[in-house]
Amino acid sequence: MLVGAEFLKDLFWFSSRAKVEWNNMTEDQQYNVKRALTEMRWFVGLMLASVALGAPSDHKREFWRRFLQYEIQRVLLDEETSIPGPQMLGSFLKIAQSPIAATNTLQGWLYLITGLGDLGETLKSGPYKGWNKYLRNVGKFVLPFWKNIDQFKEFAENDALFKVFEVTPSQY
Q1: What pTM did the predictor assign?
Q2: Cα separation values, 69 from 62, 74, 91, 135, 154, Å
Q3: Which pLDDT band holds residue 134 (cuts at 50, 70, 90)?
Q4: Domain regions of the chain by residue span
Q5: How far apart are CA 36 and CA 38, in angstroms?
Q6: How far apart are alpha carbons 54 and 62 in whole angstroms?
Q7: What residues contact residue 137 under an 8 Å CB cut-off, 6+ apart?
């Protein structure tokens, strides 16, 4: 909470100082001040929205609320990587360690060949019980949006999707 109060104090100070110095700034400096203030206000607004929505685990079976919570947390994570401070490195590492879309796409297409050994296997459990393992994996890893649709089916209940936003001991 102390960090939040410090951030708000700095935002107020920066905004006040910018108003005093506005006429002494070049056009580029004025633009940069406007951009910085917009980014900081956007960040504060997202933080407040995140707090107002509460923890995802407290709102099981509320698909749209959880979806909004996820999207806000994802944008906050992206924003934190560009705001200097102790959270910057941790947020950057979270994004860097999460699966990279291009790598996943390449691995998915390679599965068309490397996964041929799964052609004769049938899934014995889970939502795709009875399906051919190779065909299910081709759908999941090669076809666009298959994985997203599967995640949407479980979004109202599955807290695992929010684990990427958790703070680990190595982070601030």
Answers
A1: 0.57
A2: 11, 9, 17, 33, 15
A3: very high
A4: 2-98
A5: 5
A6: 12
A7: 111, 115, 118
